[in-house]
Amino acid sequence: MAIDESLPFRPVRIALLTISDTRTPANDTSGDILAKRIENAGHVVARRDIAKDDLHILEPLLTDWIDDAGIDAIVSTGGTGLTGRDVTPEAVERLKHSRDARDIPGFGELFRWLSFKTIGTSTIQSRACAVVARGTYIFALPGSNGAVKDGWDGILAEQLDSRNRPCNFVDLMPRLREI
């Protein structure tokens, strides 16, 4: 990481969503890993929830969170695979169809490149993705413990650190609602 220690750290308020038909607060290990990494990095877990893989549940929940002024970013884990129940990318896709939303294609590309080093060609089954919608970042990671570690440690820890150089997601936050 290219952290410029002379700059102030600005904590980000992050909502954490586990998307699964089987996870509960008692067995949400990937959510626990992310929550710990978010807090250890100095950020705030603004909200945390578990939701089923269902477009009719995910779309309104994500919409509520992107409209919440107390949330700067959303990180989800789960629902990014290839099965019929994996609908996270579709829920995220629906959010980016407003005029103030942008796809972040490099996130999924970089995630799969990092994941390839860990799990080889199996990374091709991941549909990790990211968008910025109405001023809120949304990062969708796969649900495995290894995937959330790869996504946080390899991408988000740096990009959500306001001191990261040459650039980071935090510096862009005041301008995300520009049209």
UniProtKB/TrEMBL annotation:
GO cellular component terms, A-Z: cytosol
Name of this protein: Molybdenum cofactor biosynthesis protein B
Keywords, alphabetical: Molybdenum cofactor biosynthesis
Family: Belongs to the MoaB/Mog family.
Cleaved signal peptide residues: none
Alphabetical list of Pfam families matching this protein: MoCF_biosynth
GO biological process: one example: Mo-molybdopterin cofactor biosynthetic process
PANTHER family: MOLYBDENUM COFACTOR BIOSYNTHESIS PROTEIN B (PTHR43232)
Highest taxon, organism lineage: Bacteria
General function of this protein: May be involved in the biosynthesis of molybdopterin.
Residue intervals of the MoaB/Mog domain: 15-163
Pathway: Cofactor biosynthesis; molybdopterin biosynthesis
InterPro entries per record: MoaB, MoaB/Mog-like_dom_sf, MoaB/Mog_dom, MoaB_proteobac
